[in-house]
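The passage that follows is intended for readers who have already worked through the single-chain material. We present the inputs for a multi-component assembly, then the predicted structure in tokenized form, and finally a short commentary. You are encouraged to pause after the input and sketch how you expect the pieces to fit together before reading on.
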Amino acid sequence: NAGVMQNPRHLVRRRGQEARLRCSPMKGHSHVYWYRQLPEEGLKFMVYLQKENIIDESGMPKERFSAEFPKEGPSILRIQQVVRGDSAAYFCASSLVRQETQYFGPGTRLLVL
Amino acid sequence: AQSVTQLDSQVPVFEEAPVELRCNYSSSVSVYLFWYVQYPNQGLQLLLKYLSGSTLVKGINGFEAEFNKSQTSFHLRKPSVHISDTAEYFCAVSNYNNNDMRFGAGTRLTVKP
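Having made your guess, compare it with the prediction:
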């Protein structure tokens, strides 16, 4: 019974490049959430998706960030033209039911040089 | 929207001592409350949750928490800590009206021999 999977675990990008972070929810879960954790800070909500739909993206920066959760395949968090301030750990969580218990993946640690 | 305050950023204790990690929340509606633990370079693991019912909630690893509605608190306790409990602990709150879970800034528990 695999948990939430994220890859890559570590990602290094130079300024201006694109970063793609992938998240496979737990089996049977159709609700996916993305969070960002800056050093020495708690998690900040970014976006909530269900299959093929963005339900709430109120925590997403207005530019350069996008997310999708296609009918087939993992959820993708995409950051275009990365800047140093994007360096953080990005966590994905999934739940069976909206606002029920969220199960977290191990995170992707993005470092922008 | 709901919010969470973790009153202590760091809590050092000696092994086998009791510990309490404090969490206060604010919300205008009924809430769900969670405690997660994060070990170094890992994702978040659910310790325990309060959805409804008994206000005393028991979780994994010997932790428990008590929901106090009048004081809007959800403090985490363990009667006797181990070295292996050294980690970052996050309190989180959500409610059925919102899509996002709000996290506290975290409390770093350090257990010393």
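Commentary: The interface with chain A takes residues 6, 32, 34, 36, 41-46, 49, 90, 94-96, 98-106 of chain B (CB under 8 Å). The first strand of chain B starts at residue 3 and ends at 5. How closely did your sketch match?
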